[in-house]
Automatic annotation (TrEMBL), chain A:
Gene3D superfamilies: 3.30.70.20. Keywords: 3Fe-4S, Electron transport, Iron, Iron-sulfur, Metal-binding, Transport. Ferredoxins are iron-sulfur proteins that transfer electrons in a wide variety of metabolic reactions. This is Ferredoxin. Pfam families: Fer4_15 (PF13459).
Automatic annotation (TrEMBL), chain B:
The keyword Flavoprotein applies. The keyword Cell inner membrane does not apply. It comes from the Bacteria. This is FAD-dependent oxidoreductase. It comes from Arthrobacter hankyongi. Its cofactor is FAD. The lineage of its organism: Bacteria, Bacillati, Actinomycetota, Actinomycetes, Micrococcales.
Amino acid sequence: MNTIDVDRSLCDNHGQCAIAAPAVFRMNAEGILEYEATVEDALLDEVEEAIDVCPVQAIFLKN
Amino acid sequence: MARRIIVAGASMGGLRAAEQLRAAGWDEEIVVVGDEAHPPYNRPPLSKELLAAPGSAEEALASVLLRQRRSAADIQWRLGTAVAAADLAARTVTLAGGEELAYDGLVVATGLRPARVPVPGPRHGRHVIRRLEDALGLHRELAPGARVVVVGSGFIGCEAAATAVSLGCRVTLVEGSGGPMERPLGKRLSDGVRSFLRRRGVKCVPQQRVVEFLAGDAAGGYDDGTHLRCAGVRLADGTEVPADVVIEAVGSHPNTEWLRGNGLDLSDGVLCDGSLRVVGAGHVVAVGDIARYPDRRTGTGARRVEHWATPADTAKIAAPALVAGLNGTGAPEPAAPLPSFWTDIFAVRIQGVGSPAPADRIDVLEGDPDRPEDGAALGYYRAGRLIGAVTSALPADKQLHYRRLVTDAGIPADSRLAAV
Ligand SMILES: Cc1cc2nc3c(=O)[nH]c(=O)nc-3n(C[C@H](O)[C@H](O)[C@H](O)COP(=O)(O)OP(=O)(O)OC[C@H]3O[C@@H](n4cnc5c(N)ncnc54)[C@H](O)[C@@H]3O)c2cc1C
Ligand code: SF4
């Protein structure tokens, strides 16, 4: 299983991850990030994109 | 023998290109040559958080180093080494020490360097912000109470002015011919940003340019024997603004000199087609700030996009195009990435999507652009079509909403056909 961890002390709620991987990351109506803690292999490409576009490098993937 | 792709430039563009080459299936050699001593690092903090509080040099570097994909593990890095020249017909590059390296494919990712204000005056005591060392050196001079003059009111000038105020400096912003960030934001929001900067203590001087750097005595002098340092600026109307620190933020020049003599169009960066292939060269692509490519979304011709998102966006198109060319397979469809940018000024985030600059009409979509710190959104239209949107101090889901509107407005049909 692939686990996703966003370091909330870094995350600035930029929302770029939600554009790159909408199936995994969402911005709620308060503008705060919500995300899936685990993802299937099929979504790994999207998650890597999200990691690339996060301006503060807050997203970590363990598999 | 394994084939080799050389990537010139080891910043974000070079790194993303190398990673995307692996993602496109290139499992042969990749050599990344960069003139900076550090592995690729992130530049936005250099005018913001890192300029405000860098910590030690090691801490500063650690805070901005870019994480690399696992697939980048076997890339060969030649750091601290400039590419001096290229012979695209012979497919070789010459490194600064004289070493010649042959390549099968080449990625141009040498980015930009800051422009300097072309007026007379002492050289010492003037700063630019592009590299980590620039930010560390400037931070040391931004002592509380220091008088700072920032020349130029683009993103980096406005951010540096805000950071200097937050450190307790007394800051004058000499705007130049356009208002604060006027080119990317348009006049309406630019005027609002000026009011905001003033409310927070920046002394904005609109419609003025610097005609001379004033000379002052440098206690102790410099290694090169000079005893003069920049002690302020003279403006076009004759006003003298004294300063302890001068920051030049007047735009940048593409680092294309090493490509000269190959018959390329280097008039502003490197001219590319819609797949980021360099026009007039075989098996050469460009990524990042240096690439000038057709803006099919606005249909306004080729231009460079100097934003943080550009290296990743362009690498995703350029890398598969280069690999397809080298393998003789069909080129992938040219893509039209949607540009996006952000800037942080006194903790107010302004985010943009699309291409606001060529707009012929700007509408306020919500809020009051005169008070950008309280939340505002603007829409940018060209021939009636929404080509860009900018939000200020609004939550990210709002930004995503406006982004969707710009995406839905699509690419004009005629420019789809006109793609190079
Ligand atoms: C201070 C600052 C703040 C910014 N803030 C933001 C922001 O808030 N939001 C945003 O969207 N964008 C921002 N940007 C823009 C963003 O950082 C750039 O778009 C991005 O760095 C472009 O990456 P690049 O790899 O194309 O070019 P560069 O980062 O310029 O990298 C080019 C590399 O090539 C090297 N090089 C040059 N010539 C040679 C040669 N002949 N041989 C070998 N190596 C060479 C250079 O030294 C450099 O390391 C900011 C930029 C700066 C400088
Ligand atoms: S892109 Fe990064 S900073 Fe922005 S919401 Fe996602 S994790 Fe947070």
